[in-house]
Amino acid sequence: MIWTVPKIWNGGTAIIIGGGPSILKQFNVPQSIIQGVYTKKLSPEAYSPYLSAIHKQHIIAVNVAYRIGPWIDVVFFGDKSTWDEEKANLRNFKGLKVSCATGCGLENEASVKWLRRDPRRKVGISDNPSLISWNRNSGSAAINLAVHFGAKRIILLGFDMQLDANNNQHWHKMYASPLKTVQFTMGKHLMGFPQMKADLDKMHIEVLNANPDSKITSFRKLNFKDIRL
């Protein structure tokens, strides 16, 4: 059943947690904790205390980012593989679960709110609260979800679209792809942002990217500590 997104954050700020490793630098996570998560000796929830500044904000976690803490409001994913691999844990997640994934029967999954991908606006921002612009990746689609929730300001965390100095793709090691595949995929992911920016400007919605080194150039980039919540 197709869901219609309610404006639960109307006029507010939404923070979206992506998968890029820059989030660890932005919140000064110690290297010992990072290594613990990377080697799976620690769960991603080990990062939670370092993200205390956003615990009371409106949060959308993309893909496995919901594992960082129970204070996360919404998990969003658009890939079938996320549901296939995470369905047991996702069903136990207490927050709102939203997806536009196809090919896995989520339109009939009672625990997940399902949105159809907008066939007329594959990139950019769909203004239909029952549709979502896919933009070739879950992180970008999550921005559209925040718009549907009524957010007027959106803060991006871990939206790097590049590997870090140690060739890490994510702040975790739950999954990874060969470097050439990653670089090609990230190039495709970047293609939707100019149209998203144009649509968001028309809607008078501000997006801040909390990573000065992000490859995304469409939104203002700055350190998280310089953003006023």
Structure explained in plain terms:
The protein has 229 residues and is of the alpha/beta class. Helices cover 26% and strands 15% of the residues. The chain is built from 6 helices and 10 strands; from the N terminus they run E-H-H-E-E-H-E-E-E-E-H-E-H-H-E-E. It has helices at 22-26, 31-38, 80-92, 138-148, 179-190, 193-202, and strands at 13-17, 58-62, 74-77, 96-99, 113-114, 116-117, 131-132, 153-157, 206-209, 220-221. Strand 3 (74-77), helix 3 (80-92) and strand 4 (96-99) form a beta-alpha-beta unit. 41% of the residues are buried.
The quaternary organization reads as single chain
Give the CA-based shape.
globular
Order of helices and strands: EHHEEHEEEEHEHHEE
Task: Characterize the biggest β-sheet.
Answer: 8 strands, parallel
Structural category is alpha/beta
Instruction: Classify the helix fraction into a percent range.
Output: 25-40%
Top CATH class:
Alpha Beta
Number of helices: 6
Strands ordered across the widest β-sheet: 5-4-3-2-1-8-9-10
Uncertain regions: pLDDT < 50 for 5+ in a row? none
CATH topology: sialyltransferase cstii, chain A
Structural domains: how many = 1
